[in-house]
Amino acid sequence: MIKAIAGFFASKTKRRLFFLIVLGIAALVEFYFLGLARRTFVFYTIDSGIIVVEDRMVKRSPSREVNITRYTEEVLLGPVSPDLLPLFPRETRLRSLLFRNGVVYADFSADAALPPAEGGIVLDNFRTLYSGILRNFSFVRDVRFFIDGTAAYLSTGQDGSRLYVEEFRQGGEVTSREDLPGSEENS
User: In angstroms, how far is the first alpha carbon of the chain from the final one?
Assistant: First the structure.
């Protein structure tokens, strides 16, 4: 028996194949024990705005709300590649997230009303997050966004999806941190 095993490992090709199989089995075992789920994230390139999809492994939880929260926090972290635009400014935080009756209610800090320093369009970024949540979580029927407690993303989109777009700030567009409610200059 030992001679047969030694004869098998004498071949360099068979030895490499054996180690690849062992490595693959170890990776699968680790994957199942860690409880990871594959999630897709959409970002845009800096130079041309082309859509790029990133796949990430995110820890799975028995709670649907926790899974959606983890996904949203990963989106706020931004892309892995430095050639891609983040969807939101780096300072943006998820203040709260609720999942009730198939609807996600996500409240972001006031920084979400601003485009990222690297560029991008706020409305397109919210649409991207909206579609990302619907794509990754089939049990979600609708997503409603809030910025500092004010409805920020709620009308009907071209594809029939419900996208609510209300003025975050009455009378004008938010273009800098000073324009945000609660900033030092506006207090």
Answer: 82
Q: Is the dihedral of CA 127, 41, 139, 105 positive or negative?
A: negative
Task: Please state, for a pLDDT cut of 90, what percent of the chain lies above it.
Answer: 29
Dist CA 94 CA 152 (whole Å): 14
- pLDDT tens-digit readout, 92-121: 999 999 999 999 999 999 888 888 888 778
CA distance 86 to 5: 53
Contact in structure between 174 and 113 (CB atoms under 8 Å):
yes
Residue reference for tokens 């194949």: 17
Please give the Cα distance from 146 to 166 (Å, whole number): 10
Beta pairing class for 103-108 and 142-147: parallel
Which residues, including other chains, have CB under 8 Å from residue 89's CB and lie 6 or more apart?
Answer: 111, 112, 114, 115, 116, 117
Distance CA 119, CA 18 (A): 49
The DSSP bridge pattern shows strands 36-45 and 84-85 to be antiparallel
Three-class SS state of 119: coil
- The pTM of the full predicted model, rounded to 2 decimals, is 0.68
